[in-house]
Amino acid sequence: MPLDARELGQRLKKLEKSLKQFPKDPTVEEVHDLRTRARRVESILGALGMDSAGHEKKLLAHLKAIRSRAGKVRDLDIFTSHVVGLGTAEEPECIVRLVHHFGFERHRHAQKLHSAVKRHSAELRQRLKNSRAKVKTDVRRFSKWKAKLLDKG
C-alpha cells in the first residue's frame, strides 16, 4: 500500500483543528479525539523518521504534555462509565459518591487540559502546519525515489 501524502497531511490538519476549537469543558468524545489524533501524529512522524529533528522534536514534546493531560481526563471518563455500569443494587450511596468524586476530578483535570492546550496551541498549530508541508515533501520525494528504483530494476 503506497503512502498517501494527502491523507497523512489531513491527519496533521485534523489535530490542528482540534487544538484550535478545543472547548473549556470538553465532552468525552472531544477528549478521546484529541488523544487519538495526537497519537496518530506521533506515529506518523515516528514512522517517517522525523521524530529526531529539532522542529518535530519540540512538536512531539508539546504533544506529549497535552496527550498526558488528556489521558487523565480520559481515564476518569472510563472509570465513570464502569462505575455507572455496576448499577445501584447494592450500596447505591457509595456508587453515587464515587461518581460524584470522579466528576469533580474530571472537571479539575479538564481545566488543566484546557490550560495546557491554550498555552501550547498557537505554537503547536504552527509546528503542525510546517510539519504537514514537510511530510508531504518527504513522502513525494520517497515516491519518486521508489519509482526510479523500480524503473531501474
Structural notes for this entry:
- It is a single chain.
- This protein has 153 residues and is mainly α.
- The protein has helices at residues 5-20, 28-47, 54-86, 92-152.
- The chain contains four helices and no strands.
- The protein starts with a helix and ends with a helix.
Report the mean per-residue pLDDT as an integer: 89
Number of strands: 0
Helix content: over 70%
Which structural class matches the secondary elements? mainly alpha
Helix and strand topology:
Elements: H1 5-20, H2 28-47, H3 54-86, H4 92-152
Helix pairs in contact: 1-2, 1-4, 2-3, 3-4
List keywords for this structure.
single chain; 153 residues; 4 helices
Condensed summary:
With 153 residues, the protein is mainly alpha-helical.
